[in-house]
Amino acid sequence: MSEHSETGAEPISVDVVVDVPSADVDQAYTYRTNGVRPTLGTRVRVPFGGRLVSGWVVRTGATAAADAGASELKPIHGIESTTAQFGPDAVRLAMWLRRRYACTFREALATVAPRLLAGSERTVYTFAQVPAPADRLAQALHRTFDGQPFGALAATRAATRARLGLTGGKLRSALARLAQRGVLHRAVAGTKRAPKASRRPQFAVLVDSAAAKGSVQRRLAVALADNAGRLPVAQARRIAGASAQALRRAERAGVLRLEAATLLDASAGRGRPEQFTPTREQREAIETIDVLSREGGATVLLHGITGSGKTFVYSRLVDRVRSRGGKAIVLVPEISLTPQTVARFNAVFGSKVGVMHSGLSEGDRVRVWEDAAAGVLDVVVGARSAVFAPLPGLRLIVVDEEHEPSYKQDAAPRYDAAVVARERMRQAGGCTILGSATPSLETYHEALTGAIRYVPLRERATSAPLPPVQIIDMTQHRPPAGRAIGPALLAAMERTLARGEKALLFVNRRGYAGLLLCRACGFAPRCRRCSVSLVLHAADASLRCHICGDAFRAATNCPRCGSPELLPYGFGTQRVEAEIAELLPAARIVRMDSDTTGARGAHGRLLASFGEDANVLIGTQMIAKGLDFPTVTVVGVVAADLDLNRPDFRAAERTFGLLAQVAGRAGRAAPGSAVFVQTHSPHHFAIERAAQHDYERFAAKELSLRRELQYPPFGRLAYVGVAGIDAAHVARGAAQLADSLRGVKDVETLGPAPDPLPKARGEHRMRVALKSQSEDALLEASALARAESRRVDLRITVTVDPR
Ligand SMILES: [Zn+2]
Ligand SMILES: [Zn+2]
Questions:
Q1: By CB neighbour count within 10 A (0-12 exposed, 13-18 middle, 19+ buried), where does 800 fall?
Q2: Å from CA of 557 to ligand 1 middle
Q3: 603-636, pLDDT tens digit by residue?
Q4: What whole-number distance in Å separates Cα of residue 438 and Cα of residue 441?
Q5: In what order do the strands lie in the sheet with 256-260?
């Protein structure tokens, strides 16, 4: 092919990140271009450690003058795909991501430009060596394609031109033979045509790491464990290098199980445009933020109480940005839980909106991604990963419910979408809006100190007052034995139903009972792979582990002492449902938890039936968010203290946030609504302040406690997780790791201690906590922990700024 390097204007070296999933090769390597001219973001083949591997070009542009030593470099072998998979912005963001969250360059790139690992690929060949003169086909192809990638179709054309008379199938097998002999290199490359969308993507879910036999099953177990126990089947196979049969063998061996994704109802995304006149306060917020967004680079906390119309403010601001030719991303904690927010954006922006969520097949995901990159979409609405949507001219990112923990990714890179949003807007000179009724204390502290702008919305748009909250002290007003609902809440529900209004009950656990407990000897069945009790499910009288999903038939007698008093203890949604059905004959109940919303469209159907003829909605977290039913006049929280007792410095913040959210579901338009909070800790400040709807005083107290203990926002945290099959090995490895981390200056190393979930899916888990005042020191320690993982054969995870 043509040689232009002597002109001096051609880039003569490029930096390449190799596609080798190992922490040992975590850097970009420089290669000589050797006549081929790959552009940024294309896939190339390079010599690496004595073999040829694929990689992505992450830097080009150095010319002969700037790159004097280029002749010493190894040359690139060839180009695999000429379609750029990402641009310079993505490379900048990936570099930032890698440092900030202690991940590898490859992990960062695959996150920023997820098509890198997507399945939308076709087979492409390049020459790995000069073919033997006797092989006519290879000679003909070499003359046509030397140094360039080609597909089977192009090869057929070349063969026809050379009058070799080979067609379709025969040619394909000839190519495969050449590849086998090492003459051709075979690779898959991106194609513009997205694969056909499958209706239900399948996921592989890790059940038991310890059951893995042989290296393939072990690789599958590690790949899944690294990704919070769950991956799309295609991705799990690719990472572990496992065949479809190997996957099925692993399923039979009990290492994993296959399940279909939960898909949300397509109708959840439709809605009518709302005619709305902004209140004075909303108008001021819109103008203030609009000015900031035109200046660029600003971050705003939009602190609006429930019902103050934050979504309306967002949509007006997105519209302003759009009118100036800019694009916007709107992040929501989970699409299926905020159907009304999505519906509003769909109604206002129509076909210019792309919606991204976890129920999309890989093909659909690629399509939204490509439409975004092509400039077809103006707005992308989605959960966490939509923060990377490649919109050209992106000027605004809205992070709704910014305090939600689901913005933190629980697989490497363990990024926080709200933090990524701010970095993206800093690099692009755009604006980030963090919206919440109960901001995270880190964000609120930044607003108090003036590091970011504070824009409050203090009035409810409907002018209905916030409902009164009654705290019920369950130590004083105990319900009858075996019951969850106390007399006050029950009476209020009865009155509400008699008036033809609706009630909502929040229960923080699904299933029937928290556990089965033998009243004679205290035995409670636990999962043998995970350190949790098994949860009783009534429908099929099964005991299920909520971590690994394992299920057993529930015994009637205690397996330890034989007593028949093996009885339910604690309350789940199913038990509360049964209790209400028994005590309130007028109740027409809808139950919403992940057991009832698994089927396609179930979520939308359940919500619709509650909106129409049902009158009691019982559910978990998923009913706390974003739902808006004006006729709900009683809201009950069955047990407010469950979250308060978690071993987490955010326990109070979470409890306050959840109570405020649940309380906000009541009486959004109706007078006389009430909220009942049943608790065993009626005087805890998180519960008292939530009952008074007093975020400011809650935050003041909680911030002073955090300051004392140097917890965020007054110090930075990172968790280093150490996991493995053998408990003693894990303990030793964690102790060694902690010792080496103690050497880092300005970082306090705590532990190792057992993880809050000390055993999961067959793996034992320890945790080392790192605390520091200095970001640099914390990142240095995190990088060191990451590097240590190469020396010990344990699974090490680093979580910077855990949520
Ligand atoms: Zn017993
Ligand atoms: Zn389990």
A1: buried
A2: 8
A3: 778 888 888 889 999 998 888 776 677 788 899 9
A4: 9
A5: 230-232, 202-206, 256-260
Distance 558 CA to ligand 1 centre (A): 5
pTM for this structure? 0.81
CA of 516 to the centre of ligand 1 (A): 10
Q: From CA 323, how far away is CA 318, in angstroms rounded?
A: 9
Angle at 483 between CA 556 and CA 615, to 5 degrees: 115
Give residue-wise pLDDT tens across range 130-148.
888 888 888 888 888 876 7
Closest listed ligand to the CA of 563: 1
State pLDDT tens for residues 745-797: 899 999 899 998 899 998 999 999 999 999 899 989 988 888 877 667 788 89
| Gap from CA of 727 to ligand 1 centroid (Å) | 28
User: Cα separation of 34 and 78, whole Å?
Assistant: 9
Query: Which ligand is in closest contact with the Cα of 517?
Result: 1
The predicted-structure confidence for 426-482, as pLDDT tens digits, reads as follows 999 999 999 999 999 999 999 999 999 999 998 877 666 778 899 999 888 888 888
- ∠ Cα 658 662 668 (to 5°): 145
Distance 545 CA to ligand 2 centre (A): 5
CA of 569 to the centre of ligand 1 (A): 14
CA of 315 relative to ligand 2 center, distance in Å: 43
Q: How far is CA 699 from CA 16, 306, 684, 741, 774, in A?
A: 47, 17, 14, 33, 24
Q: Which residues contact 111 (CB under 8 A, 6 or more apart)?
A: 94, 97, 103, 385, 388, 413, 415
230 C-alpha vs ligand 2 centroid, how far in Å? 14
CA 146–ligand 2 middle distance (angstroms) = 55
Distance 548 CA to ligand 2 centre (A): 4
The ligand minimizing its distance to the Cα of 567 is 1
| Distance between Cα 438 and ligand 1 center (Å) | 45
Kindly report, residue by residue over 370-391, the tens digit of the pLDDT: 888 888 899 999 989 999 999 9
Confidence class of residue 45 from pLDDT cuts 50, 70 and 90?
confident
